[in-house]
Design brief:
With 708 residues, this protein is mainly β. It folds into 6 domains: 91 residues, Immunoglobulin-like (Sandwich), CATH 2.60.40; 93 residues, Immunoglobulin-like; 92 residues, Immunoglobulin-like, CATH 2.60.40; 92 residues, Sandwich (Immunoglobulin-like), CATH 2.60.40; 93 residues, Immunoglobulins (Immunoglobulin-like, Sandwich); 168 residues, Jelly Rolls. It contains 1 helix and 60 strands. The strands form 13 sheets. Strands 48, 50, 51, 54, 57, 58 and 60 form a 7-stranded antiparallel beta sheet that branches. Strands 4, 6, 7, 9, 10 and 11 form a 6-stranded mixed beta sheet that branches. A hairpin with a 2-residue loop joins strand 18 and strand 19. It starts with 8 loop residues before the first strand and ends in a 6-residue tail after the last strand. The N terminus and C terminus are likely disordered. It comes from Anaerohalosphaera lusitana. This is Ser-Thr-rich glycosyl-phosphatidyl-inositol-anchored membrane family protein.
């Protein structure tokens, strides 16, 4: 076989014996290249990386890549690369719709391929993603404009239109680096035809606009307080409160006392925009008042409160508030506070529930908050005290309910007491000096006053030793009266109990004997089943020194709180001035916390089985889902038993309620007993005035030491 290179060779192969011949012709082998992408119809963007791909056959080691932006008239080199079949091409800045790509064998320029048809190189452009239509933006607020970029754009021009694209306004600053977002201060141009446009700062034709209009609406204040219906006191401080929809840098606050016909600025008029302003209520009494909050720079943007009234400053009577019993001729303090400013007060009293009034002497007493009143020698259970502004008597406060004045007061026996038949009990009373030398007639009843038994007429010593007759009854009353003036009298406020002890004592009672003191306290089985005796009583005339947590307090309630939910606190205790209560100056704190306890010291219950506990309750509290209230008992102050708790509905008391709970199943007979009340704010509570407690009593039955 001959040596050498040729593209057209023919070889002959033959054999002599037997004779056989074969001719072989060799065809030329030609290298080829085929462009795959871009091969026509594509659109690529300047600055982006796009793949070039091709196929090849034969011995092609390296390829030259070139492109044309004029349909092949001229070619611009891309580079010479290894024949891997692909190359990542950064699209040059030569926008054209007549682009072609050519791949050539670097060693043989006759071996190449070109895109079958033109493709397009387009400029880089932004793509707006937000706002794209339908949004509402408040004037003065800051909103973020978002976009993406196809290709490479160094800086972006952001513009807005408020007339659906007829005119455009650049934001400030107009050109921003291409970070993909821009914090836009929404202008004070109210419109529902707003658009945003983002553009290449160097090629404004490369832009994108919101797909649909959005709205710019005016920021505005919203007055919360006053909310309407309030009675504000002249000279008092009142918190005006508002919120702002959008953004307002400064607000102007004005008030009107004629329903908005004229307006007067507060002082100072512009107060920033903190949402709250402490307003000194002017001395302009009116029942048609308004407050207006405005944008200080755009007065037409405002909100006006509902109507409220400004009233004269008021005296607030603290005591007597009602339910008390006073002795004629004695001296008691009349106490009050002043809401606002009053120079002089006038004090009056009524004996007929307010039908007629008489002045105290002297009637005008300045305004120091207290006056020692000498109670007249009258008898009435319809008494009231009224404290007025001396210069304007129509401005006053009066006792919440009637109290009693008696020339004679029965102290004992009173409701809830127990007396033992065939034993001595001291009847006690008081009279004023007017009747110091009078004789006192005493009577008693075992049938709630249906019939009376005369005990006789005695000297006015204030006490009488009464031998209780051998009659069992829970309908007992005692009556005392001035003998020569039966209109001057008093009677037990409610029934008391006379009980019998059937258990016999052992021993020789005619001679010397030793008696166990526990046996002296025995009651018969009938008493065990029917009766009860008072173990402990707290009337809260003085602070008994209970343990306090959270907002529990001891003192005189002020009748405050309940502004938004429920009712106010009471103005006094049930029978006296004082209570234990949660924040006596208003609503409880709605911050999460607790439980907070009000706890008594140990109560001695030796030889007694506690059966019932009663107390007066004035409760205003959210439902148990939000505020949990409990009353619990314990014999060791460690393990507690819940005997009452609030339920799924809010509680709103406007008067005192008596609560009585059975505790026999929770507490066994023992030497000590503890009581406690608690509250706990657990979740999103509404503010109520809380819980007030007065007149706590523990009842029980006597037991022998063997039954303990």
């Amino acid at each position: 076989m001959a040596s050498g290179e040729s593209y057209e060779c023919e070889y002959r192969i033959y054999r002599q014996t037997p004779s056989w011949t074969c001719n072989i012709t060799l065809f030329p082998i030609i290298d080829t290249i085929t462009v795959q992408s871009p091969n026509g119809g594509e659109t690529v963007t300047i600055g982006t990386a796009q793949p070039i791909s091709w196929d090849s056959e034969g011995k092609v080691t390296n390829v030259d890549l070139a492109y044309s932006a004029d349909n092949g008239s001229t070619w611009l080199p891309i580079g010479t690369v290894e024949n891997t079949g692909s190359y990542s091409w950064t699209i040059p800045d030569t926008p054209s719709s007549e682009c072609l790509l050519k791949v050539t064998d670097a060693d043989n320029s006759n071996v190449f391929d070109v895109s079958d048809s033109p493709f397009m190189i387009q400029p880089a452009y932004p793509i707006l993603t937000s706002p794209n239509g339908g949004q509402e933006f408040y004037t003065g607020t800051t909103r973020t404009v978002y976009w993406n970029t196809e290709g490479t754009i160094p800086t972006i021009l952001v513009e807005y239109s408020s007339d659906n694209g007829n005119t455009w306004n650049a934001v400030d600053p107009p050109n921003t680096g291409n970070t993909g977002s821009y914090r836009w201060q929404v202008p004070h141009e109210v419109s529902d035809e707003c658009l945003i446009r983002v553009s290449d700062s160097d090629n404004l034709s490369a832009s994108d606009v919101s797909d649909a209009p959005f709205a710019i609406v005016a920021s505005y204040p919203n007055v919360w307080m006053p909310s309407g219906g309030e009675s504000l006191l002249t000279g008092d401080a009142f918190d005006i409160r508002w919120s702002t929809a959008g953004s307002i840098e400064n607000v102007a606050i004005d008030f009107s006392t004629d329903g908005g016909t004229t307006w007067q600025p507060v002082d100072p008029a512009n107060t920033g925009n903190t949402g709250q302003y402490s307003w000194q209520v002017p001395y302009q009494v009116s029942n048609n008042c308004l407050v207006r909050i405005s944008d200080a720079e755009l007065a037409s943007v405002n909100d006006i409160s509902a109507s409220f009234q400004i009233v004269s400053s008021l005296p607030n009577l603290l005591s007597p508030r009602g339910g008390e019993r006073f002795l004629s001729g004695s001296t008691i303090p009349v106490k009050w506070e002043t809401d606002g400013v009053i120079d002089e007060v006038l004090i009056e009293y009524s004996l007929d529930n307010g039908t007629s009034w008489a002045e105290v002497t002297p009637s005008n007493v300045g305004n120091n908050g207290t006056y020692d009143w000498v109670i007249p020698y009258e008898s009435s259970d319809e008494c009231l005290i009224r404290v007025c502004d001396a210069s304007n008597p129509a401005v006053f406060d009066v006792s919440k309910s009637a109290f009693e004045i008696r020339p004679i007061l029965l102290k004992s026996p009173q409701s809830g007491e127990s007396v033992l038949v065939n034993s001595d009990h001291t009847i006690e009373w008081s009279t004023g000096d007017m009747y110091a030398d009078s004789q006192i007639n005493i009577q008693h009843s075992f049938d709630k006053g249906e019939s009376w038994i005369d005990l006789g007429t005695v000297a006015n010593s204030g006490i009488y030793q009464w031998t209780v007759p051998e009659v069992e009854s829970n309908q007992c009353l005692v009556y005392v009266a001035v003998a020569d003036n039966s209109a001057v009298n008093d009677i037990s406020k409610d029934t008391f109990l006379a009980y019998r002890c059937y258990e016999q004592l052992s021993g020789d009672l005619d001679g010397d004997c030793v008696v166990d003191l526990a046996d002296l306290a025995l009651l018969a089985e009938s008493w065990m089943s029917r009766g009860r005796t008072l173990v402990k009583e707290y009337v809260l005339d003085e602070d008994p020194g209970w343990s306090l947590e959270g907002q529990w307090q001891f003192g005189e309630p002020l009748g405050w709180g309940g502004i938004s939910y429920g009712y106010t606190d009471p103005n006094s205790g049930y029978t006296g001035a004082n209570v234990y209560g949660i924040n006596l100056e208003g609503d409880y704190d709605t911050a999460l916390g607790g439980p907070f306890y009000l706890t008594t010291p140990a109560i001695d219950c030796s030889h007694l089985q506690p059966t019932k506990i009663s107390f007066m309750s004035w409760l205003n509290v959210d439902s148990a889902d939000y505020v949990q209230c409990r009353f619990e008992v314990s014999t060791d102050a460690t393990e507690w038993q819940t005997v009452w708790e609030n339920g799924p509905e809010a509680v709103a008391n406007s008067e005192w309620q008596q609560m009585e709970v059975d505790v026999g199943e929770y507490v066994t007979a023992g030497d000590l007993l503890y009581l406690r009340w608690s509250y706990q704010v657990v979740d999103r509570a509404y503010p109520y005035s809380g819980w007030n407690i007065d007149d706590v009593r523990v009842w029980g039955v006597l037991q022998s030491k063997d039954e303990k």
